[in-house]
Design a protein that fits this description.
The complex is a heterodimer of chains A (about 290) and B (about 240).
Chain A: H1 2-31, H2 38-56, H3 60-81, H4 92-113, E1 129-132, E2 135-138, H5 139-161, H6 163-173, H7 175-180, H8 185-210, H9 218-232, H10 237-257, H11 262-276
Helix pairs in contact in A: 1-5, 1-8, 1-9, 1-10, 2-3, 2-4, 2-8, 2-9, 3-8, 5-6, 5-8, 6-8, 9-10, 9-11, 10-11
Chain B: E1 5-7, E2 10-14, E3 17-23, E4 26-27, E5 32-37, H1 43-51, E6 61-63, E7 66-67, H2 73-78, E8 81-84, H3 96-102, H4 115-121, H5 123-127, H6 138-150, E9 156-160, H7 168-176, H8 178-183, E10 187-192, H9 195-201, E11 204-209, E12 212-217, H10 224-232
Helix pairs in contact in B: 3-6
Classes of the chains: A mainly alpha (about 290), B alpha/beta (about 240).
Amino acid sequence: MSFIDTLLQGVLLGGLYALFAAGLSLVFGIMRLVNLAHGDLIVLAAFLILLIVSTFGLDPFLAAVIAAPMMFGIGWLLQYHLLNRTLGKDILPPLLVTFGLSIVIQNGLLEGFTADSRRISAGALETASVNFGGISAGVMPLVTFASAVLVIVALNQLIYRTALGRAFRATSDDVVTASLMGIRPNAIFAIATGLAMMIVTVAALYLGTRANFDPTAGPARLIYAFEAVIIGGLGSLWGTLAGGIILGVAQTVGAAINPEWQILSGHIAFLLVLLFRPRGLFPRAVD
Amino acid sequence: MPSLIETRSLTAFYGDLQAVFGVDIRLDAGETIAVIGANGAGKSTLMRSIAGVIANRPEMILHRGEPIGALAAPDVVRRGIALVPEGRKLFPSLTVEENLQVGAYGRKVEGPWTLESIYGLFPILKERRRNPATALSGGQQQMVAIGRALMSNPEILLCDELSLGLAPVIIKDIYAAFSKIRATGAAIVIVEQDIAQALKVADRVYCMMEGRITLSGRPAELDRADIHAAYFGAETHELH
């Protein structure tokens, strides 16, 4: 029973990692941009939610609803005015600029919020649980997992069922030909990053209510996000969810054996996938 | 009344190389013109300049008398100028139908061309509409590329090397669609290496060589030997 329990906790934790990763995956899929500041943007969004919660005394879920469009705006401006300038044949400029951005965000947050670790309180929900025939699962982890599935369903609908989604895919295929269709690639990229930042807000909500965070917590989230994307295979959002779950299960199983092995076993699972399936489990992107 | 499209001493570069040296062409409403020339004559660079893929000085290209030389491609499409690019350039991530739909992304206007009427023009595409566009044969892919450009209901359709890499019988099928496209009133520019095909469909022909217009006129008025000389730069005695 306790093994099934561990497995369930791992799967649910995977939902959080999938949320970390979905925005990264979206941005990479559309513009081949590796955003090294992704983790820091998650932490930034967590501080934004915290700020709204503490200033207006709002429920964190409501605060996230308010923060999401603000994060969309931040993402849009960031992409349109900064990151678009780094895109091109050379893959180095976006890496350098987002690495720098990561440092800027961390230091900005340190200035604004000090180095103290913070937490977003979700009230009674934090300790609420449901029982499935002897196994209990926390309500928050369940809600997190459900949110991850919902986000991925919604993203897939957007990408495969709407005109905007067609424009995303066309631009990802061929920027010049897309512009011949009247698509403005810079605007498409800005919208994509804006959307990624809305997903980041969802991830931040569950990050901040689950555990403590501080201004330097970003890079570790980035690693989990990367690992989930790579395990799942580039370009597949369901693969990203699977990647998150594998990572989450590996960590909780590792922790059950020995608490010191939690982080390590996640990385080992990642390395094993790289070793045997270097393109990930469900690769979609050709390049 | 100003021409639909007019280029004035257009110069353009292909990468660092100058590919077009002072080209003047004109396209009037409802007309079909052909630009012929050998590989590297500058035909595609000319098309890409008009379509806004290559930026030029504003007054080098006029649309209804207004300078558009410096406009980017998305703004050129919105003015009703659509390009069928050389090599078709379909989007591999999109199905046939999605490729057609994305053609109307930047310019949604009422007009003769809808998904239904494109399927009427090329019935085979309707059967294959759920297939990935790149799973189609070369000729079918060219039909998708033409349909995609038509979806913006352009006033001006620029077609770059439609027959490239296609079998003659398929080229015939594709050009058969042109009478229907012309009947909607669209003006058409055809870039071709196939001289006979160009002379058959065009009201007027420009011949390019090494980035310059070497000959122009109505097909009936042009002498084969002159075309040959303008196309290859060859002496007439080489012609048989």
